[in-house]
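BACKBONE STRUCTURE TOKENS:
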Amino acid sequence: MAKIVVFGASGRAGSRIAAVARSRGHEVTGVGRDPGVQAAASVAAGYDVAVSAVADLARDPAEFYAEAARALVSSGVGRIVVVGIYPLLETSPGVRLVDSPDFPAEHRPFCLGHAAGVEVLAASEADWVVLSPAGDFGGEATGTYRRAAVDPGNQLTYEDFALAVVDEIDHPTHHHTQIGVASV
């Protein structure tokens, strides 16, 4: 079984990811809202997997997500799994939803902040994957999910998303990429 640290374990996604991982026999350490991004590097050191399910809405998103990604990369953790957002999924090859001309301008800074963190990961030698709900969170838990492209109308539960995240930890099949997860 893996030794996993979940940053954001007190949040909606992080708490469910931690619970599913524990139920499968993994050794899980949950880190709450704010241990400080720099502290993340020392906390994650020695773990097999670090899951990042964090947000800091009081900070500049680009600064926060890039700093968080740098901290995880510098920790030397075996694998980095990030909870992403669907506007960064591609609608066609090389074109993300956030890049479309009709994407709401007020949401762009937060989305591009997430993208800054992904860029840090992509430029590193770390083993990483970003899993994003293909749409919004909601609906009834089904115990199933599917890989999917962006689908803003899709309603995926936190519980089903957590299954996808821990399945990727148990059977790491995606590396250096971002994938979408949707309800069945």
